DNA sequence: TGAAATATAGCATAAACATGCTATATACCG
DNA sequence: CGGTATATAGCATGTTTATGCTATATTTCA
């Protein structure tokens, strides 16, 4: 009783959506594939589609909405839909927050084609699939990256505004030595060597 | 005298590269297509390929390098190659700086498939092709931000990644002195005193 | 063509940063 | 009660930035 598999892809980058839809059809043997670049169009389709089995590839970054809120809406409309996040994001905080919404799988756009196959297999066995790149990112995240303390984050804000140690010290009423200590502890946690790298880290972790 | 068209795509997101390669083959009638996710592999291929006609789809954001410096290298290796920037970037300054490197075309990843066709047609007529979305973005370009030169923006990208002067210099093949000059000119234009402030400025103006 | 902008490169010096150490007081958790 | 995390502060030293100058070649554009 081999049934036809259905899949849709939602990505605001139309070329990517269209290309990936073609790939699913040609390489993964999925018969019916449609691509969307807007959440509204997609939801309209989903309501009309009914409660059949459906693989949904979702991007995290979408123009006016967020892939996560769409996931909630998808569950409401079709509880049987298999939702796979396919995203270019690499920030551990982002991947982690996606997982808390319990999709069927998370895939990096940088992953190999074989991981797409593996993902389908895992979903058929009702297992959560996380691509190897994200596994790696999450494991180093959980282990090494502890949260910044409130005082550290406060100091970080000033650095992100471009203030120097001395300026930050006078604004926080701390000794410059203390500011340096906070900064160096953050840099140790984030494993970076310069303020520039720390600010990049902070951006990626949505700390600023 | 219909010859076989060759194309390659360079995108660090493997799934995107692979999917788009499939699209070019199936929808654009291009016979030989290869995809790469790393500049080094790609350049190796390019050297072996020789001076035949070749369409090269380049992404702007690449892990350790920048699509722009790659373009310079491509011209050196194969002067007849047709280079098409295919990018998800939307910042006017970025699009503008890409254009100053004189690729054969610039396409947004959000563009319609029809624009890919149109792009090939334009290139055959030796016309520069700019997709409609980018045309629109450039026309509403805020003149104030335009004060950063292409080279300056390229250097800025490295600073935003947390690289030091020395690291940036080695990656751009410039003298550290030159990198310092570019940096100080940007800082003067943005009226700031530290890298941190300049990065804040760059964030706020969507330059990075 | 000629002025202006861009890209390149250098020297010198003071300020700021990065990092190796140490140290005390307080707070929180089990 | 005692261990761990947090917040505070310091010294010493080498590296990197920031900034004041100058200078040439190339490109762009009016």
Automatic annotation (TrEMBL), chains A, B:
The modification 4-aspartylphosphate is found at residue 59. GO terms for molecular function: DNA binding. It comes from the Bacteria. InterPro entries: CheY-like_superfamily, NreC/VraR/RcsB-like_REC, Sig_transdc_resp-reg_C-effctor, Sig_transdc_resp-reg_receiver, Tscrpt_reg_LuxR_C, WalR-like, WH-like_DNA-bd_sf. Residues 6-124 form the Response regulatory domain. GO terms for biological process: phosphorelay signal transduction system; regulation of DNA-templated transcription. Residues 141-206 form the HTH luxR-type domain. Keywords: DNA-binding, Phosphoprotein, Transcription, Transcription regulation. PANTHER family: NITRATE_NITRITE RESPONSE REGULATOR PROTEIN NARP, TWO-COMPONENT RESPONSE REGULATOR. This is LuxR family two component transcriptional regulator. It comes from Sphingobacterium siyangense.
């Amino acid at each position: 009783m081999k049934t036809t598999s259905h899949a849709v892809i939602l990505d605001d980058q139309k070329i990517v959506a269209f290309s990936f839809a073609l790939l699913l059809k040609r390489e993964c043997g999925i018969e019916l594939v449609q691509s969307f670049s807007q959440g509204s169009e997609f939801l309209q389709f989903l309501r009309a589609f009914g409660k059949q089995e459906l693989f949904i590839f979702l991007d995290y970054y979408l123009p006016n909405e967020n892939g996560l809120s769409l996931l909630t809406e998808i569950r409401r409309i079709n509880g049987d839909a298999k939702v796979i996040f396919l995203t270019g994001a690499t920030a551990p905080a982002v991947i982690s927050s996606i997982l808390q919404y319990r999709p069927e799988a998370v895939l990096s756009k940088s992953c190999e084609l074989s991981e797409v196959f593996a993902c389908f297999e895992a979903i058929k066995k009702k297992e959560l699939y996380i691509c190897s790149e994200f596994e790696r990112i999450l494991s180093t995240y959980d282990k090494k990256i502890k949260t910044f303390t409130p005082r550290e984050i406060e100091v970080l804000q000033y650095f992100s505004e471009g203030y120097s140690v001395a300026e930050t010290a006078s604004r926080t009423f701390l000794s410059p030595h203390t500011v340096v200590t906070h900064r160096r502890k953050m840099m140790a946690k984030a494993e970076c060597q310069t303020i520039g790298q720390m600010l990049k880290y902070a951006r990626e972790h949505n700390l600023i």
